[in-house]
Amino acid sequence: MIRAVDILRERLGTLRPETAIILGSSLGPVAEAVAAPVRIPYRDLPGFPVPKISGHSGEVFAGHLSEKPILVLRGRGHPYEKGDAAVMRPVIEALKVFGVTRLILTNAAGSLKPDMRPGSIMLITDHINFSGMNPLIGEEGDKGFVPMTRAYDAALAEDFRQAAKAEKVKLHEGVYVWFSGPSFETPAEIRMAQSWGAHAVGMSTVPEVILARRFGLAVAGLSVITNLGAGIEGASPSHDETKSEGQKAVGDMVKLLLRFCTLTPSPREAGRGKGPAAERREG
């Protein structure tokens, strides 16, 4: 992890973004919005998992969005690839040491609501871990007892609501359920998740949220809806559908992220020290 941070510092020079974005399946093109990027493959960063799933190229884009410094991570490692819920721990820990304070997580997800159609974007307000895994299992001492009551930062969520309003992008909101994958959910599992009051299902993100909270990062999450859950209107999801349908939301995702960056000053820019969001997380 330390070696990866050293490489980031060496390659990025004076660029020190406080915000990082991890792009999920089909959202790789969002990284093309980064102005004058420095591009670093994950394979050049020790500890960063090199994704083997199509739609995840495994590359850091470092530059600016809306003239704000940013790190955009094109792709992620998934727990189902190696049976390790902590596969992204070296990444999250490196971001923390590098100086990132805010982490925006995106993913492709299946909708549990017929009126939230493919191509929609959902702001994650909370999650359910149905995977049977946790990236903090084996954590030394008491450090694994991470509160998750406010896992998703309220201030960042409000900034995304304002960004959606300004850009006239319809932004759904709801609870995301993490299934381990890689097989898709059964219709019975989808009905179960609906009965819990969940709104979307997917195979990622939650372990990264847990890790980010472990390291004190403020978190926001966005799901791109790529399919209806299994059995809803006869749906039978596939990875090809995930990739093709997710691309339809790339334009709206870029608009949201660009506007979000204009609305959200960093603690350094605002001269606030840690800032109110950090104070809430520690309270």
Observed structural traits:
five-stranded mixed barrel, disordered C terminus, 9 strands
Q: Which whole number gives the mean pLDDT? A: 91
Structural class: alpha/beta
Between the first and last Cα atoms, what is the distance in angstroms?
28 Å
Report Rg.
Answer: 18 Å
Task: Explain what the structure shows.
The chain has a five-stranded mixed β-barrel with strand order 5-8-7-6-9, surrounded by four helices. Residues 272-283 have low confidence and may be disordered. 47% of the residues are buried. It has a single domain, classed as Nucleoside phosphorylase domain (Rossmann fold, 3-Layer(aba) Sandwich). It is built from ten helices and nine strands. The chain is globular and about 50 Å long. The protein has helices spanning 2-12, 79-82, 89-98, 154-167, 187-195, 206-214, 239-246, 250-263, 267-270, 275-282, and strands at 19-23, 35-41, 59-65, 68-74, 102-111, 121-129, 171-178, 200-202, 218-228. The chain is α/β, with parallel strands linked by helices and 283 residues long. The protein is 32% helix and 24% strand. α1 crosses α3 (89-98).
